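User: Good morning. I'm curious how FE2/S2 (inorganic) cluster would be positioned relative to this chain. Could you predict the structure with it bound?
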Amino acid sequence: MPTIHYILKDGTTREVDAKVGASVMETAIRGNVRGIDAECGGCCSCATCHVYVDDAFIGLLPPPDDMESALLEAVASERRPGSRLSCQLTVTAAFDGLTVHVPDTQV
Ligand code: FES
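Assistant: Good morning! Here's the predicted structure, ligand included:
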């Protein structure tokens, strides 16, 4: 079972075991990770699931599609190269160890 690492604003890390096929957002919600509200429930319309994927893992992920990319232009925190909407990241076995940072504005 892949483990996702969520680094919070205070520097602490939450490790949550993920189900293959679930999203990184759903995994965070199930693990009670602070700062990932997912107000739209994962339909790519709220951007409250924004995360910064750690540099070491950016190349592992498929690029955002047009809809995700457009919404990333409107996130509360600055958009960075690792910015992703965690509801759009579907966990595979290759995600084991994936590390994402929760933006400071999401608490
Ligand atoms: S949960 Fe709303 S955009 Fe991801």
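Residues 64 and 70 are 9 Å apart (CA to CA). The pocket of FE2/S2 (inorganic) cluster is lined by residues 25, 38-40, 42, 44-49, 85, 87 (CB under 6 Å).
Let me know if you'd like a different ligand tried.
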